[in-house]
Amino acid sequence: IYQMRKNKDSVQICLENAHRYDEHNKSYMLTLASFYSRDEKLTQAAQLLEKLVNDYPDEYEYYYAISALYGEASLPNEAIRILKQLEAIVGKNQDISLDVYNYSRRLGKEKKAIKEMEQLRKSDPDNLMYLMLLAYAYEEYKVEKAIKLYRQAMEDESEQSSDAAFLLADFLRRLERKQEAEELYQNLFSSHKGSFNHKMDALQKYYLKEHAQDSALIQSAFENILSQYPHQAQAHSLYAAWLKEHHQVMKAAIHYRQAIDLNPMELQNWTQYVNLFIESQNFGMIKDVCSEARAYFPQEFIFPYYIAVTNSIENNLPATIQAYQACLEILHSQAQAAQLSRVLGEMGDVYHRMNKMDSCYIYYNDALIFDANNAMVLNNYAYFLSEENRDLEQAEKMARQAVKLEANNATYLDTYAWVCFKQGNYTMAKIYIERALLNDDTQSAEVVEHYGDILWFCNDKAKALEQWKLAASMSAEVSEKLQQKINTASYVE
User: Fold this and answer.
1) How many domains does the chain have?
2) What is the CATH number of the domain that holds 101?
3) Mean pLDDT taken over the chain
C-alpha cells in the first residue's frame, strides 16, 4: 500500500522491520536490498547481500551483484574484496579476473591489474582466451609484448586463433601501423578460418570507413566473404547497400534479391530492394516486389501504399483506389491517425482526378477527422470548393488554416489568394498572391496567371496583361482560356 502511494520512507521502515523480524529470510533480504538499490543506497544494499551470502555461500551470482553494487558506489576496493572471496571458493576464472582487472585500473593500480591477468594466464597456460586477455592487458603498457602474445595465439590450430588475428589487426590499426593491419585484414577476409560475425564486424566498423575511397579493395573483401559464406543473407544485404551507395544499382538489386531469398522475413531488405526500383522509376518491378512482400508482411502498410502511388502515376485510378483501401484496412487496425489522414486525403485527390467530387469531399472530410491539421487536405479541399464557387466561407477558413500551418508554402498562399479572389476580396487576394510569388521556387504558370486575374480586378489592367503573357511563356501548353485573356486583354471567367 505504501509503495502504491509512493511513500518511500514508510516502505523502507516496513521492509526493515520485516527483515529484523526474520533476519535469515531470503525473500525479505532480497526485497530490502532491491529497495536500497533503487533508492541509490548502494552500500546498504551490498552489505545486506553480504549477509545473504553468509547464509547461501554457494549462490555465486550474489557475489557478482555485491561487487557491482560496490563498484557503482565508487568503492572498487570493496568490489575486489568480494570478488576475491568468490575466487577462493570457485578458483580463477575469466569473469572474476576481468572484473578485478577493471576495478584495479579504476584505482590507478595498473601493475596490480596486469598481475591479475598474468595470474589468470598461469592458472591455465593452455587456455587461448587467457593468453589473448593477457595480450589485451599489455596493450597500453607493453606494446611489443602484446603484439607478440597475439601472434603466439594466432599460431594455435583452433578456430579461436582467428579471434587473436582480428584483435591484433584492430590493435595495429589503433597504433597507426596501418600496413601491418591491412595485411592481417586481407588475410582474414580471404581465409576460411574465423567466424562470419567477426569478419562482418571488422568490415562494417573499420574496413568500409578506412577504405571508403578504395572501391576495388572493398569489393575484393566482399567477394572473398561471399565466396566463403554464400548463404549468409547479412553479407548480401551489406554488399547490396554498399553497391547502391556506389551507384551500381543493377548489381545491388541482385544481392538484395539474394538476401531476400535467403531470409524473406527481413523487412529492411524488402524496403531497400523496392527503393531501387522507385529511384529508377521501374513501376512494374515496384508493384511486383511490393505484392510479393505483402505475403510476408501483411500488416506493413508501406507496400500497398507504394502500389497505390505507382498506379496513380500510371493513371490507373481504379487500381489506385483498391490499393489505398488495403492501406486503410491495415492503418485502421493499428490506429495510426496521421497515416490514415494522409491516405484518405490522397484518395480524395484521386477521386478529384476521376471527376467524382462528392466522393472527393467525403474522403477529405474523413481525412480531417483523423488530422484536423492536414495542411495538404485543407489546401486542396479549399481550392476545389473555390473552383466550384461553393462554400467559400468554409473554403476561406481551411485555406487560412493551411497557410497558418505552413506560412511560406507558395501553393497554400496561392490557394488562399484565390479563395479571397472568389469572395471578391481583391485587396487581400493581391497581398497573398504576391507572397505566393515571392515563395514560389517552381515558377508556377498557374500562380502567375492567378496574379494577372487578381491585378485585373485591382484595376491594374496593363500589368494583368503582362502577367498573362508571362504565364503563357512559362506554359508548355497554353490553355484556351489564358489565350483568350491575352487576345482580348481582359479577364475571362
Assistant:
1) 2
2) 1.25.40.10
3) 91
